[in-house]
Amino acid sequence: MDTDLGEIRGHVIVVMAPMGSGKGTIVRHALAKYPELRQTVSGTSRAMRPGEVDGQHYHFLSNAEFEQKIAAGEFLEWAEFAGNKYGTLKSEILPRILECDVVIVEIELQGVEQLLDLLPREHLTIVYIEAGGWEVLRARAESRAPMSAAELAARHERYLIEVQAKPIADIVIDNTGDINAATAAFDQVIEEAYKKCK
Question: 3-47, pLDDT tens digit by residue?
Fold first, then answer.
């Protein structure tokens, strides 16, 4: 990594959670309450879906473009799921943590392990959102949109990987019941992160 790690002044909050955990609601609440918070926009090799905007939902890249950026070392971390690649570009996070910014990054366990190898641990807080077992989360997801058996199987496989991340979390937020309590707990994480900024 080209950046001098001694220059880092900001803090990264890594958010990990299975689908249907309420992660999106909790993060959106935080971004509205703390307008100075920064959130990374991931790169992906998957096709753009209706209603999505390049640079807002994802940086949409062709497979060849994604591979070129991997080879050039432009990703801080990346992972593959269901045949598509997803990753956090260094340009999305490093300039921000050289300032006294707090940055929210939503990534999978594979990505977190790469981040732990790259960034000093004192500049990271890993948060896991607990929202119940697979059956609860599956019911939540299916209530939002119908899913094929193949998609459900892929989601279940992903869930089994995601729950392995819980032991490495610094903080586990319980969102099995009260979303207000969960958002308040996440607010506390953000406030502590700002205290750690140099």
Answer: 555 688 999 999 998 877 889 899 999 999 999 999 999 999 999
Residues 78-82: contacts with CB within 8 Å, 24+ apart?
Answer: 78/43, 78/111, 78/114, 79/107, 79/108, 79/110, 79/111, 81/108, 81/154, 81/158, 82/154, 82/158
104: β partners: 13, 39
pLDDT in tens, 105-118: 988 777 788 788 88
List, in sequence order, every residue forming a beta bridge with 110; answer none if it has no partner.
none
Percent of the chain at pLDDT exceeding 70? 97
The H or E element that residue 105 is part of is strand 102-106
Mean pLDDT, residues 113-128: 89
Distance, CA of 15 to CA of 101 (rounded, Å): 16
150: domain CATH number?
Answer: 3.40.50.300
What separation in angstroms does the CA of 137 have from each of 98, 179, 182? Answer: 37, 15, 16
The total of structural domains in the chain comes to 1
Read off the pTM.
0.85
Domain that holds residue 63: 5-196
**Residue corresponding to tokens 């896991």:** 128
Closest CA to 100 of 50, 157, 37, 151: 37
**β partners of residue 74:** none
Of 183, 193, 187, residue with least CA distance to 26: 183
